[in-house]
Write a structure and sequence with these properties.
The protein is built from 19 helices and 18 strands. It is of the alpha+beta class and 564 residues long. The strands form 6 sheets. Strands 1-4-5-6-7 form a 5-stranded mixed β-barrel. It is globular, with a radius of gyration of 33 Å.
Length: 564
């Protein structure tokens, strides 16, 4: 497989497509493929051009390309093409109209990337993974996609030993499958009413829950927003505050809201922001449904779902933190606990826009009143349900949220963006990682040999420094010694240690304190000041009633050395 390690920084290109010298669209896989250094497989000889956008839309790309390569060891395969000027270009998001042309090769590469990281996985898991990755495409992944690129798969197995260990790939190559006719379900699965790509995004604004002219976030949240003040003025919506010129420029490239851009998403249960960046230690995790853009803290979703899983909330929380996927409560009726059936109007969902609560239409409580009202509804009841805003669903606010009369909605302070101006994002991530490290450190009951030697050195240094210490400090230490109380002696012992070192390992648990108390009682009767001054070390058992600060420091060294 081609390596990316020894290359200069490649240029990333989005919204791309390829065309030949007749301006006809063509897939990049027809180019010669680079397997190793200076090793190319034969490919198409005619001119092929890459068109796309780079530098967040500031640069338009139109370059002739002569080869391509891929890396399977990332979470998603990394695909690059080589320009005539010998510069590598990384392909990111293709143009929508070009997706159909390159879908089979993308399916094949995603399949290889998945099995190389999961060699023992089953065929069922492979196809479920691919169906999830390509859920936004019109046609679902099928065996035909892999058959179309059988030569590439065979060659990849030769170059990468890890692929030869994959049970799925081995069985697939041994079976030598051929293309089969797609079923009507395969062909129509993405063409049914209500299942278009556009319907994956929110059809109402995340701020005000109204429709109109919306800007859709291309990130994981799948939300939509009123982009300008004018777009939101009819709905008293604060909007994103962009100018129309800014919106026109944004629409030329992919728009990402601040939550998706900085990977800081809100938990849909508690509303608090948390990092969704797994590389830095994620705090919130997404629902596994490709059509759901909600995130949750592990402990929040565990409290909501544990009774359905047969395990405790604590156990479910641990599993989610370790990467176990989950579907959030939105995808089941909170009354009858059954799923949604969009073919049956009575079994379509009514979704709350403020919390993970949903009902079937037939299960809606009486106090969730529709806009037009129903026979028997009280006049003073707030409107909490609306038809026609969500495709094949009802938009509701459940009774946990108080309706503000001026808006006809609950309070509109529910959307939180990260405060990037004060660098809070990086600070929160750093704090999270430090806290995680601190917890792991404090839970450990083993003290390293380095810590022991450090304590010895600190005790020795304390003896010499005490001779030149201020009079007031020495008087305090002497008074503590004359008092003869263990609580004050412990305070005198802890102070020098905390002043020298602030590492988590210096904190004492209750077991160590008990051991130190016992050792101090024994040590207090077994140290002489004369021997300490003469030898600078703790000697035998001569008792002295006069204790000085110097003796306390040496006692510290002896006690801590003994405690370890």
């Amino acid at each position: 497989m081609a390596s990316f390690d020894d290359e200069a920084e490649p240029l990333p290109v989005t919204n791309y497509h390829f065309e030949d010298d007749r301006n006809e669209p063509i897939s990049f896989h027809v180019l010669p493929i680079v397997w190793g250094k200076d090793k190319r497989q034969d490919g198409k000889k005619e001119q092929i051009y890459l068109r796309g956008i780079a530098d967040n839309g500031l640069q338009t790309i139109h370059r002739a390309v002569i080869a391509w390569k891929f890396d399977l060891f990332s979470v998603r395969p990394v695909i690059s093409v080589l320009s005539k000027k010998k510069k590598w270009i990384v392909l990111q998001r293709p143009r929508k109209s070009f997706e159909k042309i390159i879908r089979p090769i993308l399916v094949t590469l995603h399949c290889l990337s998945y099995v190389i990281r999961n060699p023992e996985t089953s065929a069922k898991s492979v196809w479920e993974y691919l169906a999830n990755v390509f859920s936004l495409y019109e046609a679902r992944p099928s065996q035909n996609d892999l058959v179309e690129h059988m030569p590439l798969i065979r060659e990849a197995v030769k170059w990468e030993e890890a692929l030869a260990k994959s049970k799925f790939i081995v069985n697939f190559l041994e079976e030598r499958p051929t293309k089969r006719k797609l079923s009507d379900e395969d062909i129509q699965v993405r063409k049914k009413p209500g299942l278009s790509t556009d319907d994956l995004f929110d059809t109402v604004c995340a701020f005000c829950d109204n429709g109109g002219n919306l800007l859709c976030c291309e990130g994981r949240c799948l939300r939509s927003f009123h982009a300008t003040v004018k777009d939101g003025e009819d709905f008293t919506c604060e909007s994103l505050g962009f100018t129309q010129d800014e919106v026109d420029a944004i629409r030329k490239i992919d728009f990402y809201c601040k939550n998706c851009q900085y990977k800081q998403h809100q938990c849909y249960a508690c509303g608090k922001l948390g990092s969704s960046d797994k590389s830095l230690g994620a705090e919130v995790f997404p629902c596994t449904s490709a059509r759901c853009g909600q995130f949750y803290h592990p402990h929040c979703i565990a409290k909501l779902r544990y009774h359905e899983t047969g395990v405790s909330a604590e156990e479910l929380e641990k599993r989610i933190m370790l990467g176990e996927s989950f579907t959030c409560p939105i995808h089941k009726c909170c009354f009858c606990k059954q799923g949604e059936n969009k073919k049956d109007p009575e079994l379509q969902f009514a979704l709350c826009r403020r919390c993970p609560t949903s009902y079937h239409r037939k299960c809606l409580p009486r106090d969730i009143r529709f806009a037009k009202g129903k026979e028997g509804d009280e006049e003073d009841m707030d409107t909490r349900a609306w038809e026609g805003l969500l495709p094949d669903r009802v938009l509701i606010y459940c009774t946990k949220h108080r309706i503000v009369k001026a808006f006809g909605t609950p309070r509109r302070d529910h959307v939180k963006f990260p405060d990037v101006n004060d660098n809070k994002i990086s600070a929160e991530k750093k704090t999270f990682c430090q806290e995680k490290k601190r917890r792991l450190t404090s839970e450990s009951l083993v003290v390293s040999e380095n810590s022991v030697s450090m304590r010895k050195r600190l005790s020795s240094e304390g003896l010499h420094k005490e001779k030149n210490a201020p009079t007031t400090h020495r008087q305090k230490m002497t008074l503590a010694a004359k008092a003869g109380k263990h609580s004050k002696l412990k305070s005198a012992i802890v102070k020098p240690s905390s002043r020298k070192s602030s590492s988590p390992s210096s904190s004492l648990n209750s077991a160590r304190v008990m051991r130190l108390d016992a050792l101090m009682k024994h040590a207090s009767a077994s140290i002489t000041l004369d021997d300490v001054i003469r030898k600078h070390r703790v000697p035998s058992n001569h008792v002295s009633s006069k204790r000085t600060a110097a003796e306390m420091n040496i006692t510290l060294g002896k006690v801590e050395d003994s405690a370890v």
